[in-house]
């Protein structure tokens, strides 16, 4: 069993890991993340103390699933690409997506998180672990620049300061010749509500960055062009709505009709 001593934004990785593990045990699992379930079983932590609702595990798993879809689409178009998985935590995306050996995949997170990840998951050819703070962009110098590059940041940017997010995106969009950046973002209202979530509040993590309008980022980080803005209530996931509680389904229906509510949380895909 692996002991964990994480706090702040690092501790939030236990919430998302548990959500994916639990959703994968449900009938008709969307994510089917056996790797997450295996990791949870090896961690010495009382996950039941989270008192995670079914709706929460479904939302977090749907977010991961949609980002997986975009990763697979990018790799289908660019079979020999570079993938930067920022704030990877204990997410098993590289195993779920299972890229070919032609893909250079980098898992990036704090050194202690990377050490925990190394203890829980096997080494994988073509996948390199990078232990660093994202506030220091010096690690980008070791990344090859001769391939299309996909940057994936799930549940990460909301914990960074605005200048940190913008600096990272500006460097990526100028250092690499072509590629995409995919991540989740919240409006100011969405961030305020997310920061009141009992599970995340208990970690002590500070939520900082919000984005009201996806197009605003094009001006703040020149070189980025919005390709897709997708919500978890997208019609492509309509079969998943029946899995939610009646209260959550009512909320989804209301958000579909009220734009400010719909913008509270969504997935964004930019090309550069």
TrEMBL record:
Keywords: Methyltransferase, Transferase. It is an enzyme of class 2 (transferase). Its EC number is 2.1.1.-. The keyword Methyltransferase applies. GO terms for biological process: methylation. GO terms for molecular function: methyltransferase activity. InterPro entries: Ppm1/Ppm2/Tcmp (IPR007213), SAM-dependent_MTases_sf (IPR029063), TcmP-like (IPR016874). SUPFAM superfamilies: S-adenosyl-L-methionine-dependent methyltransferases. The keyword Ribonucleoprotein does not apply. This is Class I SAM-dependent methyltransferase. It comes from Achromobacter spanius. The lineage of its organism: Bacteria, Pseudomonadati, Pseudomonadota, Betaproteobacteria, Burkholderiales.
């Amino acid at each position: 069993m692996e002991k964990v001593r994480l706090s702040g934004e690092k501790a939030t990785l236990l919430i998302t890991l548990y959500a994916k593990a639990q959703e994968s045990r449900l009938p008709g699992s969307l994510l089917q993340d056996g790797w997450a379930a295996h990791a949870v079983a090896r961690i010495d932590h009382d996950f039941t103390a989270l008192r995670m609702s079914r709706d929460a595990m479904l939302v977090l798993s749907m977010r991961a699933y949609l980002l997986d879809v975009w990763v697979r689409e990018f790799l289908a178009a660019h079979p020999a690409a570079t993938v930067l998985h920022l704030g990877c935590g204990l997410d098993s995306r590289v195993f779920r997506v299972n890229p070919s050996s032609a893909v250079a995949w980098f898992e990036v997170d704090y050194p202690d998180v990377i050490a925990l990840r190394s203890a829980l998951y096997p080494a994988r050819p073509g996948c390199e672990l990078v232990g660093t703070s994202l506030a220091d962009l010096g690690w980008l110098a070791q990344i090859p620049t001769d391939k299309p590059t996909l940057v994936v940041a799930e549940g990460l940017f909301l914990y960074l300061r605005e200048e940190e997010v913008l600096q990272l995106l500006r460097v990526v969009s100028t250092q690499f010749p072509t590629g995409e950046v995919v991540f989740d973002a919240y409006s100011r209202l969405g961030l305020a509500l997310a920061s009141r979530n009992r599970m995340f509040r208990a970690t002590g993590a500070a939520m900082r960055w919000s984005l009201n309008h996806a197009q605003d980022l094009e001006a703040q980080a020149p070189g980025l062009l919005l390709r897709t803005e997708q919500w978890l209530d997208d019609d492509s996931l309509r079969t998943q709505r029946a899995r939610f509680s009646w209260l959550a389904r009512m909320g989804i229906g209301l958000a579909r009709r009220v734009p400010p509510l719909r913008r509270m949380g969504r997935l964004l895909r930019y090309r550069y």
